[in-house]
Each structure stands twice: as C-alpha cells, then as structure tokens.
Hints:
Number of domains of chain C: 1
Radius of gyration of chain C: 23 Å
Distance between the termini of chain A: 25 Å
Strand content of chain A: under 5%
CATH architecture of chain C: Up-down Bundle
Structural class of chain C: mainly alpha
Helix content of chain A: over 70%
Order of helices and strands of chain A: HHHHHHHHHHHHHHHH
Oligomer: heterotrimer
Shape of chain C: globular
Number of domains of chain A: 1
Structural class of chain A: mainly alpha
Number of strands of chain A: 0
Strand content of chain C: under 5%
CATH topology of chain C: Formate dehydrogenase/DMSO reductase fold
Helix content of chain C: 55-70%
Largest interface: B-C, 66 and 71 residues
Shape of chain A: globular
Amino acid sequence: xxxxxxxxxxxxxxxxxxxxxxxxxxxxxxxxxxxxxxxxxxxxxxxxxxxxxxxxxxxxxxxxxxxxxxxxxxxxxxxxxxxxxxxxxxxxxxxxxxxxxxxxxxxxxxxxxxxxxxxxxxxxxxxxxxxxxxxxxxxxxxxxxxxxxxxxxxxxxxxxxxxxxxxxxxxxxxxxxxxxxxxxxxxxxxxxxxxxxxxxxxxxxxxxxxxxxxxxxxxxxxxxxxxxxxxxxxxxxxxxxxxxxxxxxxxxxxxxxxxxxxxxxxxxxxxxxxxxxxxxxxxxxxxxxxxxxxxxxxxxxxxxxxxxxxxxxxxxxxxxxxxxxxxxxxxxxxxxxxxxxxxxxxxxxxxxxxxxxxxxxxxxxxxxxxxxxxxxxxxxxxxxxxxxxxxxxxxxxxxxxxxxxxxxxxxxxxxxxxxxxxxxxxxxxxxxxxxxxxxxxxxxxxxxxxxxxxxxxxxxxxxxxxxxxxxxxxxxxxx
Amino acid sequence: xxxxxxxxxxxxxxxxxxxxxxxxxxxxxxxxxxxxxxxxxxxxxxxxxxxxxxxxxxxxxxxxxxxxxxxxxxxxxxxxxxxxxxxxxxxxxxxxxxxxxxxxxxxxxxxxxxxxxxxxxxxxxxxxxxxxxxxxxxxxxxxxxxxxxxxxxxxxxxxxxxxxxxxxxxxxxxxxx
Amino acid sequence: xxxxxxxxxxxxxxxxxxxxxxxxxxxxxxxxxxxxxxxxxxxxxxxxxxxxxxxxxxxxxxxxxxxxxxxxxxxxxxxxxxxxxxxxxxxxxxxxxxxxxxxxxxxxxxxxxxxxxxxxxxxxxxxxxxxxxxxxxxxxxxxxxxxxxxxxxxxxxxxxxxxxxxxxxxxxxxxxxxxxxxxxxxxxxxxxxxxxxxxxxxxxxxxxxxxxxxxxxxxxxxxxxxxxxxxxxxxxxxxxxxxxxxxxxxxxxxxxxxxxxxxxxxxxxxxxxxxxxxxxxxxxxxxxxxxxxxxxxxxxxxxxxxxxxxxxxxxxxxxxxxxxxxxxxxxxxxxxxxxxxxxxxxxxxxxxxxxxxxxxxxxxxxxxxxxxxxxxxxxxxxxxxxxxxxxxxxxxxxxxxxxxxxxxxxxxxxxxxxxxxxxxxxxxxxxxxxxxxxxxxxxxxxxxxxxxxx
Lengths: 479, 177, 454
C-alpha cells in the first residue's frame, strides 16, 4: 500500500457497543409489545377497518360499489365507459378466481388476527431476506464487473449475509407453522376430485406446487445462498490477513458462480414465495419484478447503513463520491423497478385476459388496496426520480438518507400489496392497527436485521485493507 | 480571441502537470484566456473557475415540454377531437400513452440539449476554418493561452517564467491578427 | 488523481502515447483505399444492387411476392426487422450504459459500435418500408392533420409506439455518435490540407478544444448517456410489445420486454465482436482492441446469453405452470412441432454456445470468438423466427394450419439490407476515425502500461 494512504487508518474496526445492543433490544421489545397489543386489538375488532361484514364480500362487490359511486359523481361518457369496463373485468376475475375465493370465504383456516400475524411475519421475512441476499449480490457483481470504486464500502453489503442464516431459519419456521395459511395450494382438499373445493387448474400444477418439492427448493436455494456467501466472506477476511491477488481471483470466480445460482434461484423463489400465494396467477416477469424490488431496497439499505456509520464516526475515507455512486444506483434502479412494474402491468392491462387480470383487479380496483397500490408508485418512482435527479442531491448525505428511507418503505409497501390480498382479502387494508401490529412486527424485524449485520460488521475490519482495488476506491472521484 | 491580439502560449504535455500548472498560474494572479486540450481533462473546468454547465437543466426543461406536449396532444386527439374507444379501454387510456410520451420526452430533451450546446459553443459547419493557437492541441499537447491585453500588470518575461515554473515545456508568443 | 489498480490489465498496449493514437487512427483515414477495402466494397455494392432490384420489384409488383399466407401473415420481414433492431442496440449500450458504469474498455470500440448501430437501425427501417408496400405513404404513420376529420393515428397501437421509438432512437443515436465525432474530426482537420481540410473542417463544426467547450461536451455526453440508457431499453421493449400486447399464446407474455432487451444486447455485442475482430486485423489495431477488450465483450455475450437462456426457461416453465392449454400447446409445438429444427438451432446457438465463454482460455481465443459471434447472430435470427412463426403456424383452427416458405424476394430484400449495412460500414471505416481518439487519449496515461510517465 502506498504511503499516501497512511494518513487515514485502514485498520478501522466497528465495535458493537453494549449501548447499541441495548438500543436494539429495546427496539425489539417495543415492537413485541406493540404487536401483542395490536394482535389483541385485531382479535377483539378494535381499530380494524370493516370492508364488508365477512370475508365472503369479494372484490367484485367493492368494484360495483365503486362503479356506482363514480357513475353518480362523474357523468361524462368516458368515466361511464370505464366503470362498465371495471365491472366487466371484475366479472371476468370472478370466473377465474372462483374456487380460490370461495374456499377462503367459508372461513376455513385460522382466525383473521392469526392470519394477519402470519402474513405480516411472512411479508417482512421475504422483504428482509431479500435485502440480505442483495448485499451478497452487490459484492458479487462488483467483483465480476471489476468495479473498484466500491471497495471501501464492500464490508457493509458483505455483512448483510449475517442475516441470511437467521432469515433462513425464520422462513422454515414460518412455512412449517403458517404454510397452509399463506399458500392456498397447500390445502389437500383442492386435489380431491370428490370434494366441492376440487380445483382442476391447481390439480394440473401439482408437478411444481407440491409440498415436498416446495420444501426442497426453498432449502436447497437457501443453503446455496448461505454457503456461497460464507465462502466469499471467508476469502474477504483471509485477504485482510494474507493479502495478495489470490483471494481477489478466487472471489471473482465464486462471485460468478453466485450470480448464476442467484439468477436461477431468485426467480424460482419469487414464484414460490410470492407468486404461488395467488396460485392461479402467472406472469413470466414476476421473478424479475420481485428481484427489482429487492434490489432497490437492498441498495437503499446499503446506502442508509453507510450514512449511519459515517454519522457515528466510522468510514472516514468514504466521501461524497462514493455516496454519489450509491445515489446513482438508487436512482437508476428505481427507474428499473418502475420499468418492470409498469411493463408487467401494461401487458396484462392491455390484453385483459381474465386469468391474469384478476391479480391486478384484486389490488388496483379494490379500495382496500387501491390507495396502497398507487402510493407505492409515487414513493418508488416519482420521489426518488425527482429527488435524486441532480448531481448535487446525490452527494448530500441528508437527502440520500431521506430518499433511502422512503425507498425502503415504498418497497416494503410494494411487497405488502403483493403478499396481503391472497391471505387477508378485504381485511388487509390500511387501518388504525397499522400503528400496532404492522409497525410492531417491522420493528422486531429491523431489530433482528440490525443486530445480525452489526454483529457481522464488528467481526472484521470495516475496510478490506488488502483488497487489490482499495487504492482506486480511496481516490475515487466522480466528475 | 477577439478581444486581444497578442498571446503567450504555455504548452504542456501532461494532463496532471497541466492541472497543477493552472492552479499555479492562477495563484500568481495571471488571467488565463483559455486552455486548449486534445481530450477532456477531468477537473480542468473547476481549476479554471468555470461553473458546472447548465445544459442538463436545459435538457430537463426540453424534456418536460416533450412530456406535456405529447400527453396533452394524445389526450386531445383521441379523447376530444375524434373520441375513440379502442379495446374497451375508454377514450383516454393513460397507460397506453406512456410509451409515446416517454419517447417524445427523450426526443426533445436530447435534440434540444445538443442544439443548445451547438448554439452556446458556436459550433456550426460554416465555422470550418477556426483560428487555432497551436494545431498540436488537437493531437497531444495542452495549450494555455494568456491574453497580454488582459495581463498588462505583469511583464512578459515574468509571465514566461511563471509558465515555465508551472511545468510548461514550451512558451511561445502568438500574434492572432 | 486517477489511480488504477495493478490487477487491471492495460487497455492500450505497445507503449502508445497520445501522438501515436492520433497517427495510428488518422493514418487509415488519410491513406488511399487498400485493395482489401476495394474488394469488400465491390462485393457489398453488388449485393446492394441485387437487393435493390428485389426491393424495387417488390414495390412494383406488391407484397404477394413474399411467401406470406393467411395464417402466417408476418414472417421474414418482421423477423429481419427485429433482428436488425436488436443488433442496433449494442452501440448505444456500449457508449451509454458502459459510460455510466465507467467501463473504460468501451473507449476503443464505442465509435464503431455506434456507427454499426445506426446502420443496423436503418436496415431495420427498410423492412417497415418494404412491408408498407407503398413507402411513399409512410408519413401517415405520424399523427398528421388531414382532411378526414381529422382522423388521427391510433396511439393505443404498439406499431405506432414503434414509429416513435425507432425514429427517436435513430435520431438520438446519430446525434450522440456525431457529437462524439466532432473533436476527432478537428484532429483530422488540423492534419489535412486543401479540400479535405475544408470538408473535415465542416464536419468538425469548427471545434478548437477549449476547456469551456470540453466542459459542456462532457455534460452533454453524460446527459445523452443518461437519456439513451432508458431509450435503448425502451426501444426493444416497444418492439417486443408488437407481439406481447396481443393475446396470441407464445406472444403474450410479460417477460418479453426485458428478455428482448437482453437478446438485443446479446446479438448486438456479437455483431460488434464480428466487426471489431476483422477491423483490428485489417487496420492493425491490436494495441487498441486488445485481448482484454475481446474478453470483456465475450463476458457480456455470456451474461446476456445466460439471461436469454433463463428467459427461455421461464417462458417454458410458466407455460407449463399456467394450466392454460393453449399456452402449453404453443410451447410444445415450438420445441417438437414442424419447426423443431429452428427451435433446436435457437437453443444451441443462443444458450449452449456462449457457455464456452465460461473458460478464460476460450474467451481469449480469437478464432473461437469470431466463430461464436457469428453463431450467436444466427441463433438470434432463429429466435425471432421461432417466436414469430411457431406462434402463428398452428393457430386455433387446425384447418388453417400452414407453413412458411421464403421466396426469392424474401431472401432478396434481406440481401439488400446486408449490402446496405456493409456499404455504409465500409464507408465509415474508410473516411471516419474508427476509434474514438479523444476518449482513448484520456485513458492512455492510466491504462496503457507506461507507468514511467507518473
């Protein structure tokens, strides 16, 4: 290493203090208390929005109500046409999703408050697990692309991997406990030809949607993620001690392997974990849609952690040039997400084939989710697009911090809208209990996530000091 | 180069030395007319005290004009001038208008900005015979031009010395008549 | 201060200095046409003339000369259109996306790649005009005021989106390319005399290399790159929507936009690879287009090829998973129906052949790179043919099932575009600087391996 670097220490180390640990534990405890209160409130029906008196009230009822209101309000020719079309689409969706809804409507399965807890846990689990794996993905593609600028901050996404084992265990527990609540297709009566719930379409899917194969995919891919991350982490830590180019080339090789595994597994797990919650729905784009959402949230989380660490006095060599690049990433991939989101919507909207369109009708035409659905679009596209457009805003840690938080929340909401309707139907909208149940469970997850990655950060130096591209990163300058 | 007629040229052959040279020359209180380089030297504009270009802002404005005009034109044409309901999507199917709106935004933003660039930098085919201080500045040399009329307080010999000390490999006089 | 890590191999070899860059590139523009060039030009012009005859006959006699039928109403023309548009993605991708990602190796190849892009998009446009039958009425694709009421074009149609996308892409690409050429024309101007000096002077727009102009130039390049990145994605997205907005099984699938974009980058890079491998030998540019460049290109070919592969698998999977009988039938028909050979060609050329590039030795093998770059483009042609023909040939009514057989004029119009493409490219390679001199000079100090200059 050149003498010019000596002025600032490369041996920076993060210490996970008792105070920080205590704060995180307080956060988790408060989250627990809030979610217990929330759960009790939902159970006794306090603070819950009533979208009709029972779950049998399906989206089409809401739709026609909405259509009527609109007809009264707006008398122009277009809006009439539109509402007619809405009803048409809703009817089409009824035909498609009949069996599925009917089954849930009969009050099978656990009570709403249990479903809501399980759904919340699953939603957050998928979201945070995604952020964690994006950390590894970030490290891997930086190796493969031979990107030097990010070397200084490499340890942060790398530490995200420490959440992977935790997330994997949570995933397994959740599928064990709540599988039948979350995944309608796990209901064995659907495949019984004599049962009134018999579903011909789902019966034709059993080659993929069957419980043993589902478990196998989940476990094999999670194990592959954890194994490859552990390997990359091992090389990175060893490099600190031994130095040389050897680990760089090894990491490069295994990063490429990871990218292949991730390319396949991220899509398949998105089909399994999210798309199969609506087992009749299919969209070839879905895997990449989930990936895009994960990726933006992961980038925002990396940025946020960098800024928070800098504010705590760490990472002195990381300057506005590195932040600028993170800002560019968030900007670009917010647009990428919008592209994927819009393309998927446009093609399904344009063709209006009932077997696909019902997925959007459930979310866009139903007033339970409609506000949330459109909010995600504003938060995830317009806000980052306008806020990060100029060069200067990408170099201000204050602006980046706000944008990162908004993006993380926006994509959390995006997953919310993906995951909630199939489990909770009309009971999943925005209500007063969000301040208890939803907030509480998010706090628990944030706490666990922070605890895991901070533990990871404290286990090795904050800067990969013997990485062959470290000097490029120190003198990185964005013009 | 319209204002003055007599110039002193410092010729550099390395971009890093040039950058340091610009700092030194400016520190010595010399007014630099302009620096001519064969390729963009990062940081030279800030070293010379130029502000970051406003062209991106112009581009944004052109783009916004594109967005608004494309959207409103389509809404007017298919929604009002000759209302058409195609595919049961109503008269104004906004999602269908997004692709063209996007393309038109980019069209105006890109062409508008490039035209503005040509105008402000006075780049046109009819300027085919520009006055060059030193033709080598399109090859591998960096030429710093100092207008004598603007540096009357410093003697020529002193200027030459400052340039030499700042790393210029050659110092020439040039009469731009 | 720019620091370059020692693990990075040099991007310009042979100890070149800035003056050497000027000499090596300008030499080609200033010299007399070589015999190789004249022969190549001759062949291109003959092909062009033959193709022009076919195109002219087509317009004179009508579209009945093509092998289209009632079932397959869209075949070679649209296949070739999509194929050329796809090829026309690499240039803007290299200069825009790789610029944003700061991949410095792009500097040696972006100029030629952009030129290729423009010619490829023009070739693609030929097929639209050819299929119009009456190209002199082409302006009615735009919303022009008329005496019918005014009756406007249908903005809901993916074909109208295409008109806007392709024309925006073509003009923006030309401008992006030309702005980059201006400083290099100035370099040639300063070396030239007489009429050449006037011509290159006009082409250079009177560029002098002021720091102020460079500052603006950089801002313009960056914003153009930022605009071109979504633009280049949008173009093939919209091309894919020509199919995906329909409800034909095999066409209507949501992954089409990003998958078409990946395929376009894939075939575009393959075409750049083909052309650069020839150019570097003919023009002796081995020091500028090094094995590193070729390896980087091969890596991108591998990456995009694998993305395309994943998309094929996804499509197949979802067709099986959907439970929709029509979807299933279409995909089985694709792989095992009468066009199985096209499907097999597509799979082996696009998915299997790039996998050789997992091995560093093979990535750096010039002969293999050249062969595979051509194989990939053959595969990508078949991909479009498979998507288009196998989704149409067996429609919902078995009595109307049909096959497509290309006629002499199908082939002839395709030949026309080849003639046009190579004529343009050869003219470009002779009279324009094939490598972006100004950009290569910016990296020569940090990436040329002449460490003594520090």
